[in-house]
Amino acid sequence: MSALTVATQLVETLTNQGLKLALAESLTGGALASALVDVPGSSKVLLGSIVAYDTALKIALLGVDANLLARVGPVDAEVAAQMAAGVRSKMAAGAESGIGSVIGVACTGVAGPEAQGGKPVGLVFIALDAPGGAQVHEFQFAGDRAQIRSSVVAAALKLLAAAL
What we know:
- The chain is an alpha/beta fold and 164 residues long.
- It is built from 6 helices and 5 strands; from the N terminus they run H-E-H-E-H-H-H-E-E-E-H.
- The protein has helices at 3-17, 31-37, 55-60, 66-72, 77-94, 145-163, and strands at 20-25, 46-51, 102-109, 123-130, 133-140.
- A hairpin with a 2-residue loop joins strand 4 and strand 5.
- Helix 1 (3-17) runs parallel beside helix 6 (145-163).
């Protein structure tokens, strides 16, 4: 199933359930938001996306713990979880909808071409922070930079669809 098909189904499901999305992207650089914005009607569900490519922005904009980042680096399950929780909280506070109707999604990882901080190319963490709880998934994708980034977007969309 194509990313556009999954995104289209997601927008429909989120609209029907009255849910909103808040995205925190690192290695995807806005590609996840772009995949959703390709769908007509996405403005009903997508609050926004913060592209926190720089580690300092993960702290300043998303509230990720600086000590955690210093200890484990930006590619880590707990960092992804804090990114998702942070974007959910910040965007819900600025939107008309309450925190109970917002799902935070975060992606962090290594797209390559070189390993980062001892983490291998293709290692990715995708976190969902939703009213029903939080979850983090670890992936090891293969391919070049573009293939890894595309795989992350597809995986994030599928995880979100499965969670709904």
